[in-house]
Amino acid sequence: MIQDIAPHRLRNEYIPEKSAAADSRCFLFRGREMLFRIRDDKVELPLRAEFPAEAECTYLFAIDDTEYYMITAPEGSTTDGEIESPEGFKLPDDCKFKTVHELRNEGKMDRLLTYAAFTAQQLAGWYRDNVFCGTCGSRTVHGDVERSIICPKCGRIIYPRIAPAVIVGVTNGDRILLTKYRGRLYAYYALIAGFTEIGETFEGTVEREVMEEAGIRVKNIRYYKSQPWGVADNILAGYFCDLDGDPTIHLDTNELRIGEWTAREDIILQPDDLSLTNEMMKIFKEGREPR
Description:
By secondary structure, the chain is α+β, with helices and mostly antiparallel strands. It has three domains: about 10-125, Alpha-Beta Complex (Nucleoside Triphosphate Pyrophosphohydrolase); about 130-160; about 165-285, Nucleoside Triphosphate Pyrophosphohydrolase. The chain contains four helices and 16 strands. Strands 1, 2, 3, 4, 5, 6 and 7 form a seven-stranded mixed beta sheet that branches. Strands 11, 12, 13, 14, 15 and 16 form a six-stranded mixed beta sheet that branches. It has a three-stranded antiparallel beta sheet with strand order 8-9-10, with no helix packed on it. The protein is globular.
């Protein structure tokens, strides 16, 4: 899965005093897109020295001894390329804005960079969405001793939010319920999934999501494994469970376009091994799911 980077190690300690060196790797975001350099199918991040000196640079985390930073264009500038106006923000040469999903689907990113990009996107979104206090509207500042955003006027402290969600392998003997999303670029088979709601347990989320998306009941809910998924601010909890009663699928066609019982030998796996969904499909295909 995406976090399986051993022997490498994520170091996500908050160290606000760190400053980027000229050769530090930097993320620049434009909405859901990030700036990458792609040469001969090799994907790399631009370096700090390639950005204007006045651009703000925020330390995010490290993987082993490789540090990653977030570049923020000066307020009022644009990031559409080399612009002749005073507000222009010149981008590094040979770089393009791409989403992680685009590069993942193209198979051009290695695991370490994919993991770094997913994690950086989560942090960048948190910084972007909390420039102003949601309580009093004042401009916020970054915390000095922990990863937090603080309102100097009302004292509100804002921490990164992680949204819990479940991935569910619903089994019916030697078959598993596979789905495909409706209206998304993601074209591969997946499992039932959904966010945990207020006041709900993971097990309750499993029961509700399966009923909502497939119209069936489940039993023998058992935990498998978890996974961070920063592109959606998630922590994913994977569960297997068994069909309880009628196997007739009543598909939520607003959410899904396919939902079908699939035999182990007929499971078509995703093209990479980054997702918890794919790992759960794989171990069921091989008959190794928890009983």
